[in-house]
Amino acid sequence: MNKYKPTDGEIEILQILWANGASSVRDINDLLNKRREVGYTTTLKLMQIMNEKGLVQRDTAARSHIYKAIVKENDIKNNLIFNFVNVAFNGSAMNLVMQALGNTPSSRHELEELKSLITEIENKM
To answer: Would you say the pTM of this structure is higher than 0.70?
Structure first.
């Protein structure tokens, strides 16, 4: 389950690629700069590292190299949650949910969805 351990910066780039599809470093850097100031060479270096890690794939056919995510969003999220629950909550998903529900307001709709999920999980047992 520990195959992918992207950094926060890598996750930010992956989110851009998942939302927008294959993109140039310039396009990614422009989108990052809408959130915070990031130098082009910093983005380029991070993309090169991500390529070496197997998180993205670089297409060098065009003058401007195009990168695309080769890891699935759901796989990364599942891995991050798995690691977070194990480290921060001693492997207890319930403790994570209780902490989250106790610290952030939930809408009636969100609580209904949670109840529905619990029922679905109970029915599988």
So the answer is: yes
Q: Is the dihedral of CA 40, 41, 46, 51 positive or negative?
A: positive
φ, ψ (nearest 5 deg) of residue 57: -125, 140
Compute the half-sphere exposure of residue 61: CA atoms within 13 Å on the CB side of its CA: 3
In three-state secondary structure terms, 24 is strand
Sign of CA dihedral 118, 119, 120, 125: positive
pLDDT one-digit tens code per residue, 93-122: 889 988 988 888 889 999 999 999 999 999
State the alpha helices, DSSP H only, in 1-125: 8-20, 25-33, 40-53, 73-88, 93-103, 108-124
Crossing angle of the two packed helices 73-88 and 8-20, in degrees rounded to 10:
150
Start-to-end CA distance of the chain, whole Å, equals 23
